[in-house]
Amino acid sequence: MRPPICVICHNDFRASANEGGLVKFKTTDKEKKYNQRMKNEKITGHPSGLEWFCGEHYALAKTYQHLAKAEAIIVLKS
Ligand SMILES: [Zn+2]
After folding, report:
1. pLDDT grade, residue 19 (50/70/90)?
2. Domain residue spans of the chain
3. How confident is the model at residue 17 (pLDDT cuts 50, 70, 90)?
4. For residue 72, how far is its CA from the centre of ligand 1 (angstroms)?
5. How many Å lie between the centroid of ligand 1 and the Cα of residue 37?
6. Are 23 and 6 contacting, i.e. CB atoms less than 8 angstroms apart?
7. DSSP 45
8. C-alpha 78: how far from chain center
9. CA of 32 to the centre of ligand 1 (A)
10. 7 CA → ligand 1 middle, Å
11. Which of 23, 39, 55, 62 is at 20 to 30 A from 72, Cα to Cα?
């Protein structure tokens, strides 16, 4: 798992992690395969489809959970 750094504004909110949170997006087939492989091989890492958002972007990001992560990030950054 990566430290809490907002994927939109790159704000490192480790000191106040309660302000933001992890958002789980729709996983693509490729991401599902990756997550399954990590699980099977007991690899610890950052699961695909999950991303950190600071307090400022968390609520907005949650409204795009139905999208795949890459699509949601494009929309959120625009
Ligand atoms: Zn942010």
Report:
1. confident
2. 14-77
3. low
4. 14
5. 30
6. no
7. S
8. 17
9. 26
10. 7
11. 39
9 CA to centre of ligand 1 in angstroms: 4
Residue 78 CA to ligand 1 center (angstroms) comes to 13
Token pair of 33, please?
């395969």
pTM of the full structure = 0.82
C-alpha 62 to ligand 1 mean position (Å): 13
d(CA 51, CA 34): 15
For residue 30, the cross-strand partners are none
Tell me, in angstroms, the distance from the centre of ligand 1 to residue 12's CA.
9
